[in-house]
Amino acid sequence: MNTTFDYIVIGAGSAGSVIASRLSEDRDVRVCLLEAGGPDKSILVHMPAAVVAMVPTSINNWAFKTVPQPGLNGRRGYQPRGKTLGGSSSINAMLYVRGHRWDYDHWASLGNPGWSYDEVLPYFRKAEHNETHRDAFHGQGGPLNVAEIQQPSAMSRLFVDAARECGLPITPDYNGADQYGAFMYQVTQKNGERCSAAKAYLTPNLRRPNLSVITRALSQRLLFEGRRVVGVQARIDGRELRFEARREVIVSAGAFGSPQILQLSGIGPAAHLQSKGIAPVVDLAGVGENLQDHIDYVYTYRTGSDTETLGASMTGGMRILKGISQWKRERRGIMTSSIAEAGAFLRSRPDVDVPDLQLVFVQAIVDDHARRLRLGHGFSCHTTLLRPRSRGTVRLNSPDPAAAPRIDPRFFSDPADIALLIEGAHQQRRILDASPFAPVRGKGLYPLDQRDARAVEQDIRDRADTQYHPVGTCKMGHDSMAVVDARLRVHGVRGLRVADASIMPTLVGGNTNAPSIMIGEKAADMIRADKLDH
Q: Of residues 138, 382, 469, 478, which has the active-site annotation?
């Protein structure tokens, strides 16, 4: 096995897949992509509705847990993360959401030149092939295919009708000029299959002679000469191998994995590293700080078994079996569904300019990330707090690279977050209780008097958890807690960048897969430009 490359990318997730693909377009450089998970050949990855089999289990999934959360009444949160080519883009619900213009302008205002909305929009467009929207906000011809839900459920259409009844505008392109309103989500799919970052960027290019994609390769630590990173030590098939990087190492292991790798390598808060027996190379206080995540609350109503939902019943089982058969033959039918098909962006108050709440409607009963199976049928709605004030940490549990990191989101540690999510729950119920749902709406899975604010708060603390969007643990900036600069170079180290959701200084108002792909596109361009500058 050749172990010397120009660039080594750690992590084949939403950003890493992009970076490895784009850098290897230059035939004069050799690129190695190290992925701790396996290949992405499973039908569960490519059949969209099979997301329900991966998120609640350890199939292609790290299935992390948080430390007990006081804000969640002492519960340990659940943190699914993709463990395969494509990372979390191979196990997510495929919703194509960029966030709001304000988010990126805010990053730039924090002292990160090049990251305003107008400056990142070209990278969203470069990545995208949008089957519907052809305008200044969207791209055609990019690797990432963005499509409409192929066969939306009638229940999802009821949600849009109910939102309209409650006064929300219908916004066909929530990634365009205006985010506010209700809509059917666009999804990262192509011809009835998931279009993950790996499927978009890696699969078409695996035969490039200058691109080596190595799966089941657990990166253990970075290798240094002084304060320059010169390679990576990884464990593959029980062997520890050293990979040399002539130019750069790019860490793209996500909001949990990237700070873990830096800390294992001696980059991070010195006292914490020493407490784990790791000699500090660079005392960088912000590594693993600034963890932000979308806290999310689900409400569910039961329905009859004859409604167009996915559920655990004889009727539902037959419908799914027929759907799998149809998908295998035609790549059409109910198994092309993302399950989460409709949604909305809301404002908690009339005087709020930028939507601060997101709804995701699901044509099924959702309880504890689908880890708690319920017989029967129903529909659910997620309410997500888009810009939480609470901040958490990612630390090492152990110096063993195979050990899970210590994840502490500190949900609701800022009391403003619970107040805002209570308001989100009220708006959620207004829509679910509207007249379009009356013919199918049964009992609530967790009956709750919405007028009792204390009961609503208790239910949120009893059941709320992540919406799967952790960011910020290697944040971009120049303050004392920043880890990378605006070109994603790690402070105090040469030959090393971080490029993934961990570099976000603040959480965007929406799902994080599309922004992570954008970060990968922009990072690849910066790496190439910096090479030319030298």
A: 469
